[in-house]
Amino acid sequence: MARRAQRAPASDVVTPRPVGDLTAYLTEVCGEATAEPGFRAALTELLTLALTHRSYAYEAGGIPHNERLEFLGDSVLGVVVTDRLYHDHPDEPEGQLARLRASVVNSRALAGVARTIDLGGYLQLGRGEESTGGRDKDSILADALEAVIGAVYLSGGMSAAIELVHTLFDPLMRHSATLGAGLDWKTSLQEAAAARGLGAPVYDIESDGPEHAKTFVATVRLDGTPLGQGTGRTKKDAEMQAAAVAVESMGAVEGA
């Protein structure tokens, strides 16, 4: 995807990434629904709302913000994830299915997914949230991702929303038995390594590109052996992807 949000050197003003970049990405992953007349225009308009945090809305004179879309997207996400887990785990009782769902649909997990598409770079935030790192806050990212799902649902219907949720969340759903509620891939790898009597994971980071649009590559090693590599627009994202690859390569994921 294109450049990240850029900070102007002379002030704290951040220019968000163009909404059109996100529209283009979502159009690629939302399937046949994107061929419907007016889909892109409707989606772009709704995404503008989905990316507007209440702090920005307040400072802009009380314009609409993303919380209604978040409410809708939360329900859509819950239905799609629950349906997938229900069919993927036919022998699990209700309580276990609820735990599996909680490992996927929680703020920390949603924020991790949001970071993989650099959702924070698109946000419209008020000055206070901007100055306190709001673009990378789990709660803000999770809420914005749910709002985006709501926007896709309204633009392209349930079929488009299902395509998006599966694209973004299938890796988590496949490995939900390994990820406890609120855990992440780095935590899972660390626990898997400890269970096997291995040392702590070590991450090597390289970067490429201009300062405002760096791409990071992380390689994770256990006892000196490289087990996974990931890329991302932040070091954290690259490390998380590398850890996910390593968990799979170790056979730590149930059913791997």
Characteristics of this structure?
single chain, about 260 residues, mainly alpha, Ribonuclease iii, N-terminal Endonuclease Domain, Chain A, Double Stranded RNA Binding Domain, 2 domains, three-stranded antiparallel β-sheet, two-stranded antiparallel ribbon, 10 helices, 5 strands, about 10% strand, globular, disordered N terminus, disordered C terminus
Account of the protein in words:
With 256 residues, the protein is mainly alpha-helical. It has two domains: 6-174, Orthogonal Bundle (Ribonuclease iii, N-terminal Endonuclease Domain, Chain A), CATH 1.10.1520.10; 185-249, 2-Layer Sandwich (Double Stranded RNA Binding Domain). The protein has ten helices and five strands, in the order ββαααααααααβββα. It has helices at 19-29, 39-50, 54-59, 67-88, 94-104, 107-116, 127-131, 138-174, 185-195, 235-249, and strands at residues 6-7, 14-15, 202-208, 215-222, 225-232. A three-stranded antiparallel sheet has the order 3-4-5, with helices on one face. A hairpin with a 6-residue loop joins β1 (6-7) and β2 (14-15). α2 crosses α8, α4 crosses α5 and α9 (185-195) packs across α10. The longest helix is centred in the middle third of the chain and has 37 residues, at 138-174. The chain is globular and about 55 Å long.
